[in-house]
């Protein structure tokens, strides 16, 4: 005998980061931990270079191959897939393919993690990608999760304290209509890592005691993926943001260390210990 299980289906359109700390690998682990069935379409492959300061080596996936992955996923889960996370895009062509795929069906939740500059990109090219992301993906999103730097870029403001982070979240929302979870993380002074949620009605500050003063790799990807999973299960954007903050705080508390100069978060932080 068997039974048919029907978990919420989630999709990440993101880059691979081979060591597993960030990107699609972190997203899929997060999707699984939060009880959803994760799928992934890869936009690019990042391979750190251990003999060159762990710099990003970036290979883009052929846009046709990305379109094929999305075609397979969307055809397989027609009627079952209504929630997607967008991570690192890597090129303007990728953004065009993703925008087309998004427009090919109805979505309840489109979570945009606006990964702007990646070390492997030429500055000129990165700027083109950033412009395309703002012009073509932000209008299709329902929630966006900029970090400190990305919130400065999207709002055109300098952010050095909580009041400015709130102003930036309001401005990004007012210009795009998208619910904003703007992450101060460890980058603003003070004992707490604070993020700001704003959806045009609720403005909430999500705070947690800082755990060290260095950013942990994978936290941003995992936060957006956790928001995605919680939305897929039917929570509101604010509930999803609160739950995602707990998920990441627990994961940073139980971080992993390896040879890279920064630690990575562990997605199993909220698991009940056996
Ligand atoms: O954390 C941003 C990020 C997203 N996606 C991929 C990455 C990184 C950072 O390394 O490699 C694939």
UniProtKB/TrEMBL annotation:
Name of the protein in its database record: pyridoxal kinase
GO biological process: thiamine biosynthetic process; thiamine diphosphate biosynthetic process
Biological function: Catalyzes the phosphorylation of hydroxymethylpyrimidine phosphate (HMP-P) to HMP-PP, and of HMP to HMP-P.
InterPro entries for this protein: HMP/HMP-P_kinase_dom, PM/HMP-P_kinase-1, Ribokinase-like
Record CDD domains: HMPP_kinase
Family per similarity comment: Belongs to the ThiD family.
Chain ranges of the Pyridoxamine kinase/Phosphomethylpyrimidine kinase domain: 19-257
Transferase in keyword set: yes
Organism name: Enteractinococcus coprophilus
Catalytic activity from the UniProt record: pyridoxal + ATP = pyridoxal 5'-phosphate + ADP + H(+)
Single GO MF descriptor: phosphomethylpyrimidine kinase activity
Keywords assigned by UniProt, alphabetized: ATP-binding, Kinase, Magnesium, Metal-binding, Nucleotide-binding, Transferase
Superkingdom of this protein's organism: Bacteria
